[in-house]
């Protein structure tokens, strides 16, 4: 970024506090001025002296710090900064934020802020999955607080699962992307996500293993860039982004109809959904009973949603997605040519299905552009950056320049 940003980094009491030291260092490498405030519990994991040495600024821990005018540290600390970032954010601290509890310096600063707030959760997997934590996270998101992560992986307690704080490099990318100029302000983006479910009878159907995480991540990335986003989603377990126009569908036909209903005036279309290629010719209106004789299903092809959108007069800039198990380059390029789209994002299913991370290759007229393995959120930002560059070059209406990647 050209203009230096100012961030207040809040450190709470979790073992991931050691990562906050590296985060402070990396932010400063990216021309970000960092000041640190800590909870008392945070100081038990990393000393304030560490952060003072890294930032060159005194670390604030006391609500009654007399070095501030009128002893109002909780007001002064959030003024003049571009954002407050809480990393790590414990389950306890997020509960405070969700309910407006101000019982120490950092929680009071967060409630008294007049700037964006970003939190990076870090906790045991059971704490993350606890219904109370999930309710609090949903409240934070609905209140406009950006929740960065968490990721899945090994935890300090010896368990494995969701709740691990994002790595400092990933957090830097997310923070800079969040604070970057809103390149898509005034633009409309349509995203499809998730699987479809093609009914065989009243209880059975044809579907696939898509979680929808990649499509939702693309929608979140576009929202972070200021776009007006419509997300058309098949069945998933993911809560919809609160700022997106959300359309829930079940079948491929429903998804096709929803896209047709919302595609007018769209600038960029991301066709991320894993739409079923075939659907039963006729679904039974009752549950089929098991017997000893073979069951024959008659299937017909579903509508090609991406090809339909790409062939529209004044079609939006179309980005396709291809999930393959082999011959990635050949199949992806063939799909791009058949659908006559400028860009396709391809990955091997064995690298992505059921995982929090992905690695993809972007194909366009210039060839192949590999994107190294990273969280799906990170991958989404890189996909969006590439699409913005091509959109500017190909669209006579575009005035957008691609976003810079965080170093």
Automatic annotation (TrEMBL):
BP GO terms, sorted: coenzyme A biosynthetic process; pantothenate catabolic process
Cofactor: binding comment: Binds 1 FMN per subunit.
E.C. number: 4.1.1.36, 6.3.2.5
Cofactors that this protein relies on: FMN; Mg(2+)
Keywords assigned: Decarboxylase, Flavoprotein, FMN, Ligase, Lyase, Magnesium, Metal-binding, Multifunctional enzyme
Catalytic activities: (R)-4'-phosphopantothenate + L-cysteine + CTP = N-[(R)-4-phosphopantothenoyl]-L-cysteine + CMP + diphosphate + H(+); N-[(R)-4-phosphopantothenoyl]-L-cysteine + H(+) = (R)-4'-phosphopantetheine + CO2
InterPro entries assigned: CoaB-like_sf, CoaBC, DNA/pantothenate-metab_flavo_C, Flavin_trans-like, Flavoprotein
Renumbered residue ranges of the record's region Phosphopantothenoylcysteine decarboxylase: 1-188
Pathway the protein acts in: Cofactor biosynthesis; coenzyme A biosynthesis; CoA from (R)-pantothenate: step 2/5; Cofactor biosynthesis; coenzyme A biosynthesis; CoA from (R)-pantothenate: step 3/5
Chain residue ranges for the region called Phosphopantothenate--cysteine ligase: 189-407
Domain DNA/pantothenate metabolism flavoprotein C-terminal stretches: 184-387
Domain of life: Bacteria
A GO CC term assigned to this protein in UniProt: phosphopantothenoylcysteine decarboxylase complex
Active site positions: 157 (proton donor)
Purpose of the protein: Catalyzes two sequential steps in the biosynthesis of coenzyme A. In the first step cysteine is conjugated to 4'-phosphopantothenate to form 4-phosphopantothenoylcysteine. In the second step the latter compound is decarboxylated to form 4'-phosphopantotheine.
HAMAP family linked: CoaBC
Protein name in UniProt: Coenzyme A biosynthesis bifunctional protein CoaBC
Originating organism: Usitatibacter rugosus
Higher taxonomy: Bacteria, Pseudomonadati, Pseudomonadota, Betaproteobacteria, Nitrosomonadales
